């Protein structure tokens, strides 16, 4: 069996304009004071790949246009809708007012393991990813509807925020796509 690598023009990707008009999964991603512009760009690129609704950038999280974000996002910052909030808590309040169920992605008391989360395709969800060292702020966790944790079985206590976002966004995509 031959496994020829496909050329970019063979991948049948949609344009930025088509992406903006395409149906999205009911998922918003919140970045709570994420400092690395490479991580931010990676989240944009993953958000584009799985057609999330939008990204909310909060606090010290960089915003487009930005050369470092673009370096990793490769233009996904132009396709995925985004908003900026000075305070992450304000973003959570706005999302809740818009009807979102909000989960912090954090190791916390009474967190739900990602594999056990139950989602309803008729509802809208938001997931919050935190600062690379400090995680999601406690006040943001307190304002969330719950916490989701990715089970880990090695010696390290956490994953890189962009890796975490990739795992969670993919899992939500699998459960919410139409």
Automatic annotation (TrEMBL):
**Biological process per Gene Ontology, one example term:** methylation
Write one Pfam family the protein is assigned to. Answer: SpoU_methylase
**What positions does the domain tRNA/rRNA methyltransferase SpoU type occupy?**
27-169
Q: Which GO terms describe its cellular component?
A: cytosol
InterPro entries, sorted: Alpha/beta_knot_MTases (IPR029028), rRNA_MeTrfase_TrmH (IPR004441), SpoU_MeTrfase (IPR001537), tRNA_m1G_MTases_N (IPR029026)
Gene3D superfamilies (UniProt xref): 3.40.1280.10
Q: Which domain of life is it from?
A: Bacteria
- Asked if Signal is a keyword of the record, the answer is no
- Extract the GO molecular function terms from the UniProt entry: RNA binding; RNA methyltransferase activity
Keywords on record: Methyltransferase, Transferase
Q: What is this protein called?
A: tRNA/rRNA methyltransferase (SpoU)
